[in-house]
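Researcher: We plan to redesign the surface later, but first we want a full-length starting point. Tokens attached.
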């Protein structure tokens, strides 16, 4: 297979970076599929930016290997980065120049075709009408979008965005989300780092979950969610403590917790690991037992696990293992 035809645009094996006694990136094996929106997800301080800096050749790893667009980095860094656009941390610009002038400065350092891409890049990120305004008048969201426009000057196959939602208001987040999906629809690959689990779930196709520098789970979001323990959400009347005790006695229930809400009791039941069909059977059995016990059930249903719940489940388990 030709280097440029690799199904993965980012490939790392055992990638490691240490700063003194601290290991920021710990033996990371990463695969980012071509033509996807891929999230590198973890809390602040998990080593996300360090990994991006290594991919871009801005800092050297202490161990491991990596490839971008099928080319080894740092050995073939120039060839690989020719079709990569990136924002590392917050994008910075010359504030007294206009958005267009800032892009012209960048284009002057690239191939001649980059200058001709400026109008299209500005239009692509919704800044054509503000292109001749000085950047010091731009909002945080506009500067983030200008950063994407700057990255598009390379006509990249791969865009790497470090925390692109940082500092954005809800409207700005919505704009960035739509922009990322549109870029993927054009056939590009977008790899973004983030600590915002909900936003990653809304915009990405696949994700790697990183904790303390290590990848603890990786794959399509639907598959990662499927690995979460199934849960049942219900609302009942009557004595909540009695209902919780009844639910907890079921052999397939791992945990049952409740809070008071309105005129009925909201309860969330975590089941033992089970496939969709088995989880549905257990849920039906729980409902039957409640009805037979004379409990009034106002609402009952299996809940769709979120990426956030899966992340917390994985990292909590790791924390318990580390203590043990």
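Model: Full-length starting sequence:
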């Amino acid at each position: 297979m030709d280097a440029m035809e690799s199904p993965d645009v980012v490939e790392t094996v055992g990638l490691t970076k240490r700063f003194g006694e601290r290991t920021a990136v710990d033996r990371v094996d990463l695969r980012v599929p071509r033509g996807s929106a891929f999230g590198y997800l973890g809390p602040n301080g998990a080593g996300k930016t360090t990994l991006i800096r290594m991919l871009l050749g801005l800092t050297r790893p202490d161990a491991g290997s990596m490839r971008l667009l099928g080319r080894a980095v740092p050995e073939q860094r120039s060839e690989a980065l020719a079709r990569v656009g990136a924002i590392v941390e917050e994008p910075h610009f010359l504030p007294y120049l206009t958005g267009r002038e800032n892009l012209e400065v960048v284009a002057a350092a690239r191939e001649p075709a980059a200058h001709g891409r400026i109008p299209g890049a500005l239009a692509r990120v919704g800044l054509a009408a503000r292109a001749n305004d000085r950047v010091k008048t731009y909002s945080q969201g506009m500067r983030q979008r200008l950063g994407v426009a700057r990255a598009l000057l390379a006509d990249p196959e791969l865009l790497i965005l470090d925390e692109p939602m940082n500092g954005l208001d809800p409207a700005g987040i919505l704009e960035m989300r739509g922009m990322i999906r549109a870029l993927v629809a054009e056939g590009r690959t977008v790899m973004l780092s983030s600590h915002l689990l909900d936003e990653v779930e809304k915009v990405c196709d696949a994700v790697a979950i990183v904790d303390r520098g290590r990848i603890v789970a990786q794959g399509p979001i639907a598959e990662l969610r499927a690995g979460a323990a199934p849960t049942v959400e219900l609302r009942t009347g009557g004595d909540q403590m009695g209902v919780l005790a009844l639910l907890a006695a079921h052999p397939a229930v791992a945990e049952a917790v409740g809070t008071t809400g309105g005129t009925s009791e909201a309860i969330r039941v975590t089941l033992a690991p089970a496939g969709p069909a088995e989880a549905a059977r257990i849920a039906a059995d729980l409902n039957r037992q409640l009805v037979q016990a004379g409990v009034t059930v106002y609402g009952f249903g299996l809940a769709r696990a979120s990426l956030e719940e899966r992340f917390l489940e994985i990292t909590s388990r790791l924390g318990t293992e580390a203590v043990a």
